[in-house]
Amino acid sequence: MARGPAVWTETVQVRAYDCDFQDRWKPVSMLQSMQEIANKHATSLGLGFDEMVSQNQAWVLSRIKVRFFEMPRNSEVITVKTFPKGVQQKIFFMRDFLLTDPSGKLMAAASTAWLVIDFQARRMLLPSALKVELPVTPGLVGLDEPLDKIVLPEKMIDLWNVVASYSTLDLMGHVNNTRYIEWATDCFSIDHFQTHQLDWLQVNYTNEVKPGEQVLLSNVQDSEDSSVWLVQGMNQAKNNRAFEAALGWSPRQTN
C-alpha cells in the first residue's frame, strides 16, 4: 500500500530568474516546479527515482497538457496541488495538477501521462510491474481533457537544429522533458510573445534524445484553427520524431 498522502500540496514563490521579459513565469519554469513537486510526492509514496531504479524501473513522461488561465508574476506565491488519477488507455499512469494563487484563483491546470520503463533496457513495462499501489483520488481532477495523439501535416517550416548537450540532460542521461517545452516555445519570435499569450500547450514525447544528437525543430500554423501552432522535433541522428507539440494562442490582453 502507498504510505504517503493521496494529494500533495506545496507552495512555490516565483523567482525573478524564472520569469520572462514580461515579468511572467516562463512555462518551462512552471513545469519544472510542478515536476519537482510531483517527484517529492512520488518519493513519499515509495516511488521516487532511487526507489524505482533499485527495482530497475523508472518513470518517463509520455504526454502533458497544460491550460494557463493567468501566468503568475515575479515573487508571487503559488500553491501547487498534485495527485494520481488512475491508469488510462491501459498503459498510462495519470497525474494531474492544480495551481492557485493565495485567494484560491485557478492560475493553471494540467494533466500528465507517465509510463514505467525498464531502466536498463529502456522498454515500456505494463502497469502491473509497479510494486507499490498508488492512492486513489475519486472525483479529483486537474484537467479533464484527453491527451490524444497530435496530428502533424507532412509539410512544416524547418527552423534550426538544437543539440543534446550537457545542460539539457537529466538523471536518465537523456534530454529532460521540460527542455522540449523550452525548445517549443523558442520556435516563436519575441514579437509573437508581445502580441499573443499562450493559453494552452500539449507535448507528446515519442523517442528519447541522447547526448550529442541533433533535433531539427519545425513548426506550422494549424490549417483548421489559426489560433493553434504545431511544433515537431526530428532526431537527425536516428531519423525519428523526438516530440510533437500543439500550442494554443490568443491576442495578448493589456493590463
Model description:
The chain has 255 residues and is of the alpha+beta class. The chain has 2 domains: 147 residues, Thiol Ester Dehydrase, Chain A, CATH 3.10.129; 107 residues, Thiol Ester Dehydrase, Chain A. It has 4 helices and 11 strands. Strands 1, 2, 3, 4, 5, 6, 7, 8, 9, 10 and 11 form an 11-stranded antiparallel beta sheet that branches. Strand 3 and strand 4 form a beta hairpin. It is globular, with a radius of gyration of 18 Å. The termini are far apart.
CATH architecture annotation name of the largest domain: Roll
In total, the number of domains comes to 2
CATH homology superfamily name of the largest domain: Hotdog Thioesterase
- State the CATH class of the largest domain: Alpha Beta
Query: What value does the average pLDDT take?
Result: 95
The SSE string, one letter per element, is: EHHEEEEEEHHEEEE
Cα(first) to Cα(last) distance is 49 Å
Content of β-strand: 35-45%
Put simply, the count of helices is 4
- Class by alpha and beta content: alpha+beta
Note the main sheet: 11 strands, antiparallel
Radius of gyration: 18 Å
- Globally, the shape reads globular
Any idea of the CATH topology of the largest domain? Answer: Thiol Ester Dehydrase, Chain A
Per DSSP E runs of 2 or more residues, the count of β-strands stands at: 11
